[in-house]
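Morning. Coffee machine broken again, so started the prediction first thing and wrote up yesterday's gels while waiting. Chain of 339 residues, entered below exactly as on the submission form.
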Amino acid sequence: MSNYHSTMSRRDFMKTLGLAGAGLGAAAAVAPGYTDLDEVVSSPKGDWKRPWWVKEVDKPTAEVDWQVMPYFDNRETMFNPSAFIRQIGQDEYDRLNQLSATNQTNWAQEERPGFTLKDIALGGSVGFGYAYGMRAHFVAPNVPQPEDYGVSKWQGTQEENLQMVRVAARFFGARDVGVYELDQNTRKTVYSYESDGKAYEFENVEKGYETDTKRVIPDKAKYVVIFTVLESQEMMKRAPDQLSSASVSMGYYQGAIVNNRLQSFISRLGYNCMAEMGSNAMVQCAGAQSLAGIAEIGRMSLTVLNPNFGPIMRAYKVITDLPLKPTSPIDSVVSRQVV
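Came back before lunch.
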C-alpha cells in the first residue's frame, strides 16, 4: 500500500476530530470527500454484510466427492446449442424455432400481455452479451502496464486486494463479489473444454495465453473471482414473455460489460486476469458460487439460491494471480430438508 494515502474510514477520521456524535450537517461540512481508490477501498462498499441467519462455514453445504467428480466439458451443457440439438434432433429444434416465431407474430397481433409490440421492442433491444457479438478476451489485450508509467505493480494484502476488487466490480455494475482458491480439487470447477472446442490447461508459465487449440492458465493464477448482476424480480414474475426475456438478457449483457471492465482493471495493476469468453463459460457457475459463498446449492432446478435475491441473478468469473482473501461458503438453511 502507498504510504502517502490513508485507508482510514471517514467515520474513524471524524472520531479523531471528536465529531463521532456530529449530525449529518456538521459531518458533511468537515468530513473529506473520497479523493482516490485507497480511500474508496476502506469505505463500506468494500464490505459484504449478510443477513443475520446466514452463517459462514468451512465447506459448501452441498457435499462434494472430489475423488468421483470429473472435469466437465462445456460442449456437453445445454447452454451449448449443438448439445441441445444432439439431444432433441435437428428437425425438432427447427420445429420449435418456427413455432416460436409463429407464436410471437400471432401474439403480437392479438396484443397478448407480455408480447405486445412494445414488449417485443423492449425484449429485442437489450442484447444478450457475448451471444450478440460483444467482444471478449481470454487475456486482456494491449492494456497499459505499471512499467509504462514507471511504477511497480500494485502491492497489497489479500484483505486489501479483496476489498479493492469488490469496490471496483461494484462500481462497474456488479452486486455480490466472492473469491475461492483453486487447488487440486477445486480446479475441477474449471471446464476441461470450452464450447468452442478449446481445452483449458494449467501450465507453469508467467502469463496466460491462447492458441488455436487451448487456453492456458498459469499455475500461479489460483484465485477465481465470481460476481453477480441482478435481474428484475417483477419482470421475472411474468415469465415466459418478452418482459422476463428482457430482464434475463439485461443480466447477461451487463455481466459481460462488467467482466470486460474487471479484467482490464486487474490487468492494469500488473497481474494476470483470464476471463470467460462467453456466458456460462470457463468455470461452472453453480460450483463457483457455492465455493465462494455467493449462494448455496438449492433444492430446485435453478441449482443455486442467494439468501438475499434467490435465483434472480447472473454470475460471471475471472481467474487471476492477484493475491485475494477467499470468501467462505455459507449456510443459510436453503439446502437443508425441513422436517
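The chain is about 35% helix and 15% strand. Going to sketch it on the whiteboard this afternoon.
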